[in-house]
Write a structure and sequence with these properties.
The complex is a heterodimer.
Chain A: E1 4-5, H1 18-34, E2 49-54, H2 60-71, E3 75-80, H3 92-101, E4 106-111, H4 116-121, E5 127-133, H5 139-153, E6 160-164, H6 171-182, E7 186-190, E8 206-208, H7 211-214, E9 220-223, H8 239-246, H9 250-253, E10 261-263, H10 276-279, H11 286-306
Parallel strand pairs in A: 2-3, 2-4, 4-5, 6-7, 6-9, 7-8, 9-10
Helix pairs in contact in A: 1-5, 1-11, 2-11, 5-6, 5-11
Chain B: E1 12-15, H1 17-34, E2 41-45, H2 49-65, E3 70-73, E4 89-90, E5 105-113, H3 117-127, E6 134-142, E7 154-158, E8 165-170, H4 172-175, E9 180-185
Parallel strand pairs in B: 2-3, 2-5, 5-6, 6-7
Antiparallel strand pairs in B: 1-9, 8-9
Helix pairs in contact in B: 1-2
The chains are: A alpha/beta, B alpha/beta.
């Protein structure tokens, strides 16, 4: 296993090795422990400035990064799309250079265009953390999903994971696919054929359009939200139809193995991709994901923001 | 005893397994002497060799007094004062200390005491778990060159060194090598 971390940026899981992913997960173990201390704050990033730059709206990811930064003693500035100069015609690069001129050390970026974090990372001395870029990657979400599976099942290698729903528009799905395959899991994508194109097989995953065949076989189901906002055409007839064909209803949940984990990156559409009772049931680890997200983001900020970039 | 050490012809043996055993046994005696209520003591090792040394000292105390001393782990990586100054970072371990720490004596255990910066970071880390009555410091080797006003309470061996020299501690459990302490001259 790698014993050292040398990256200033986290742009995606595609570029990380299995060793590097495991390194982050192990570091997150240590930061999860900080949350149990009497004083839940360490001085690791004292004096560093973190800019949460969210060009696309997000509450939970931004809040999670913000709290992670507070617990590491960093100073935080939040900038959202509406109050940034992007609306006044400033380019992304100019905005970023202005942030750097303010001596920002870490830039957490959410952006609608795939590759925006990469663009900035190669131009800035500051660490760049991708908090979701278009339909490309959302590495910290996948890392917290991996962390939660590993915590509950003790391993990832050899497990069978179903990712269900809107795969085409999902950066969460892509990052999860890269991470799960690297760590030795088997991945099956499930959803309407319009949202789960066959091209994904090239990544090394299996594809199924029949959820009832897949549910009894898997160790984890990860349900993705239908991204209304990212869909410009009609990819399925309607939400009711989607629930009938692919929703994890109370009836369908009975097909799962008793120890199968139910995951969802949130926010959940109760009654659409998952029934309320199932979301609150014993197999659901949806709130563990939220708690673990904090530990994983602390680990990522500590690692990328803590190395010398001179 | 095996005396060769690969890739360092300039390595001088300082302690062998027996000398380490005697030093840790003496530290165990001193801890018992210095702590009339040993059940209040926690031995907190700094990973990875400090954790092993803490275990060994606890075993000696058990042997001598027939009491079980609590042990813990205190990782200092999050509390160091040189974050952002290193080009690469080692893995951080989870810290583990009993709760509450109030009314207790925490003894920080490490293999080598050098600048004192690790001990300072350890004290900072311990304070985030609570407010112990006392914090003490036990080390196998004190090599001098302090950069902070810190002194150890229990020392296995005082070893005057030059800053260019390196101390190598090897323990069976952590390094898969016979117990030994070596002094090496750098370049």
């Amino acid at each position: 296993m790698t014993t050292r971390w040398t990256r200033k940026d986290l742009l995606g899981l595609r570029e990380l090795s299995a060793d590097q992913i495991n390194f982050v997960l192990e570091t997150a173990d240590a930061f999860k422990e900080v949350g149990t201390r009497q004083i839940k704050k360490v001085p690791a990033l004292r004096g560093k400035t973190l800019v949460n730059f969210f060009v696309e709206p997000s509450t939970r990811t931004r809040t999670s990064f913000e709290l992670a930064a507070f617990r590491l003693s960093a100073d935080v500035i939040n900038i959202s799309a509406s109050d940034s100069s992007l609306t006044k015609g400033e380019t992304l690069k100019d905005t970023a250079r202005n942030l750097e001129a303010l001596h920002a050390d870490i830039l957490v970026l959410r952006h609608g265009s795939a590759g925006a974090p990469q663009f900035l990372a190669s131009r800035l001395k500051a660490s760049v953390i991708n908090a979701g870029d278009g339909a490309h990657e959302h590495p910290t979400q996948a890392l917290l999903d991996l962390y939660t599976i590993r915590e509950r099942r003790g391993k990832i290698d050899g497990l069978h994971v179903a990712i269900i729903g809107d795969i085409l528009f999902s950066r969460v799905a892509r990052s999860n696919i890269f991470g799960l395959l690297k760590l030795g899991a088997r991945v099956t994508l499930v959803g309407p054929s319009t949202l789960v194109p066959r091209e994904f097989e090239k990544l090394g995953v299996e594809i199924s359009y029949k959820i009832d065949d897949v549910l009894p076989k898997v160790d984890v189901v990860n349900l993705l939200r239908i991204q209304h906002e990212r869909q410009r055409r009609e990819y399925f007839p309607g939400l009711g139809e989607y629930t009938r064909l692919f929703g994890l209803t109370k009836e369908r949940a009975k097909l799962l193995k008793p120890d199968c984990l139910i995951m969802h990156p949130g926010p959940i559409n109760r009654g659409v991709e998952i029934d309320s009772d199932v979301a609150d049931g014993v197999q659901s680890v949806i709130l563990d994901q939220v708690t673990n997200g904090l530990a994983v983001r602390m680990a990522v900020l500590f690692l990328c923001g803590g190395i010398s970039t001179e | 005893m095996k005396q060769e050490k690969q890739n360092s012809s300039a390595a001088v043996p300082i302690m062998d397994a027996e000398a380490i055993r005697r030093a840790l046994r003496r530290i165990a005696h001193e801890i018992i002497e210095g702590n009339p209520a040993p059940d209040k003591v926690v031995l907190a090792g700094i990973p990875s060799r400090g954790v092993e040394i803490a275990q060994r000292v606890a075993a000696f105390i058990r042997e001598i007094e027939e009491i079980d001393i609590e042990t813990g782990i205190i990782d200092v990586a999050m509390h160091r004062d040189d974050v952002g100054m290193r080009p690469e970072l080692p893995v951080v371990h989870a810290s583990k200390l009993p709760a509450p720490l109030e009314e207790r004596t925490v003894i920080i255990v490490d293999d080598v005491l050098f600048t004192g910066r690790t001990a300072r970071a350890a004290m900072d880390a311990i304070n985030s778990f609570g407010r112990p009555t006392r914090i003490q410091l036990a080390v196998l080797i004190d090599r001098g060159h302090r950069e902070l006003p810190i002194r150890p309470d229990y020392v296995g061996k005082n070893l005057p060194t030059a800053t260019r020299q390196q101390i190598q501690v090897r323990l069976q459990e952590t390094d898969n090598e016979a117990d030994a302490v070596w002094l090496e001259r750098q370049g």
